[in-house]
Design brief:
368 residues; alpha+beta; four-stranded antiparallel sheet; globular
């Protein structure tokens, strides 16, 4: 009987060994920071990402969009924005200084911004297409990934507090609409009428949006129209004495939005994310794009699985991944060591931070 030679097995085995050696390298996430490519808009175009600050314990943002221009902004307006951010930072700092946790700190900071009519959250919320107000907010705790959120609430003065109650008092993560309003009242939050959220500036923005769209639906990110400062959403991130991270985000949405529209702010992993060991992040910008790009969770995943530091991860998401989807905006992202990243691809972003040694910084103009 003729025996067929098996010498052909030798080169085949050699090829298989070569392929096996290559596969792990192909599947291994790159540990090299990504984010040095040129971008079309935003600060530091084409420059490598860099940390905003170190030693940070608390940071806040007041929204991203059309920039405040130093040459066009009077001292009173500049002071109002800086005071709003500083007041939020001081409220959160008081909690941390007194031994409170990061969740309580971000709630306290965001409540101040929700009560300030300058910002598109709470008191300063924009109008929907039917001249109403529908507010969204979320909170996340990094120690155990607990989270709470509300969407489309109409009678809650401070939606961030309702979000925290959802996290701590229910088995759910997100409550919406009338059910969320009812839950807030049952939980001890006094309701407010829709008039509480009415401001002349937001009404004027709605009228201009209606005029531009011929009475139709043309949502305007940040609540303003051409020629006005467009800023939307507020948020806070913090790390406490136990190195526990937390993040919170709150918004009135977009001017002239469809009734019932929900953006990224109340969605865990899009507008808000916190995980001990990686990052606490709060986003602001075009909500639909931040939802599609899972913006804040992606920052955490790039750090955990891709070897990025917080600066490189946040830069990649804001300047590369989200712009590739057609959207602009920004994030504040804080790691457990107190390194803060604050990239934005929009014209401007209002934000500020406070360090462990008490330094308080606010930034309202591009390039500060």
């Amino acid at each position: 009987m003729r025996v067929r030679s098996r010498l052909w097995i030798v080169p085949v085995l050699g090829a298989l060994v070569a392929v096996a050696a290559v596969l792990p390298a192909l599947s291994q996430p790159s540990a090299e920071p990504v984010g040095t490519t040129s971008v079309s808009v935003g600060p530091g175009r084409g420059a490598p990402p860099r940390a905003e600050a170190t030693g940070v314990v608390l940071a806040v943002h007041g929204g991203a969009g059309t920039a405040l221009r130093r040459e066009d902004t009077d001292a009173r307006t500049e002071r109002a924005y800086r005071d709003g951010l500083a007041g939020a930072l001081r409220a959160g700092w008081k909690v941390l200084r007194d031994g409170g946790g990061s969740v309580a700190a971000v709630e306290a900071a965001v409540r101040v911004l929700e009560d300030d009519p300058l910002f598109n959250a709470g008191r300063g919320a924009v109008f929907t297409e039917d001249a109403g107000h529908e507010l969204d907010a979320s909170v996340m705790r990094g120690s155990d990934l607990a989270a709470g959120a509300v969407a489309g609430v109409r009678h809650v003065r401070n939606p961030v507090s309702a979000a925290r109650l959802v996290m701590e008092k229910t088995p759910h993560v997100l409550l919406a609409g009338q059910g969320a309003d009812d839950f807030a009242v049952r939980s001890g939050l006094p309701p407010v009428t829709q008039d509480h959220f009415w401001t002349q500036a937001r009404w004027d923005s709605l009228m201009k949006a209606k005029e531009r769209s011929g009475g139709g639906r043309t949502p305007v990110v940040g609540g303003s129209t051409v020629g006005e400062v467009a800023m939307g959403t507020v948020g806070a991130v913090a790390v406490d004495g136990k190195r526990d991270l937390a993040a919170a985000t709150s918004t009135g949405g977009t001017t002239n939005k469809m009734a019932g529209r929900v953006g990224d702010s109340p969605v865990v992993g899009a507008g808000t994310y916190a995980k001990n060991g990686t990052v606490a992040a709060s986003a602001t910008g075009q909500g639909e794009v931040f939802l599609r790009g899972a913006a804040t969770a992606t920052i955490s995943h790039l750090m955990e699985f891709g070897g990025r530091d917080v600066t490189a991860a946040a830069h990649e998401v804001v300047h590369e991944r989200l712009t590739a989807l057609g959207g602009t905006g920004g994030v504040i992202a804080l790691d457990p060591r107190g390194t803060l990243a604050a990239p934005y691809s929009s014209e401007g972003m209002l934000y500020g931070y406070l360090t462990a040694d008490g330094e308080l910084v606010t930034k309202v103009f591009p390039g500060e």
